[in-house]
Specification:
The chain contains 10 helices and no strands. It has 169 residues and is an all-alpha fold. The chain has one domain. The longest helix has 26 residues.
Length: 169
């Protein structure tokens, strides 16, 4: 499990996503708030998973709307998507830095780490596809479908089930 924690810390410290680096001021303030909540020793991985799923639902609604005309009035929603992605990265980073993963939670921890890594790698492309205005392309995007499937499952079971396979995409 220590190798997972080391791998996670390395990933978080080497985020290369320029759109996230541009939001460094938001990251610093957010990181302080996340630290307050997610470094508490009583916060479980299930709490973290629930928080991630809540953010994913919002991201999914902007990237893969049920009715694309509704989102046209709001704009692309890119700012919301990036803010929620920053929150997911920050909260997950703080939790992993401050908690030892229990043996019974190893599958959840691996799946969550793999999913967050996958989402971070694919978020720019998903935003680009969503902003293209080609709703058919969004409907056929494998990344959008995976995100939507995981976001719609409030239990987190889908994230845990698909997490190990996301390295392949």
């Amino acid at each position: 499990m220590k190798e997972l924690l080391t791998e996670w810390r390395k990933f978080v410290n080497e985020v290369e996503n320029p759109s996230l680096k541009e939001r460094a001021d938001v990251w610093d303030v957010g990181r302080w708030m996340w630290k307050q909540e997610f470094d508490d020793p009583d916060v479980t991985i299930d709490t973290l998973l629930e928080q991630v799923l809540n953010r994913l639902f919002v991201i999914s609604e902007f990237l893969f709307p049920d009715d694309p005309e509704e989102n046209e009035e709001l704009g692309s929603g890119e700012g919301f998507v990036r803010d929620y992605m920053s929150e997911i990265l920050g909260n997950t980073s703080v939790w992993f830095e401050n908690h030892e993963v229990k043996e019974e939670d190893e599958d959840k921890a691996r799946a969550l780490k793999t999913f967050v890594d996958w989402l971070n790698r694919n978020i720019d492309e998903m935003i680009k596809i969503s902003d293209s205005g080609d709703y058919e392309n969004v409907m056929n995007s494998k990344a959008h479908k995976i995100l939507r499937r995981i976001a719609e499952d409030e239990t987190g079971n889908m994230l845990v089930a698909l997490g190990a396979q996301l390295d392949k995409f």
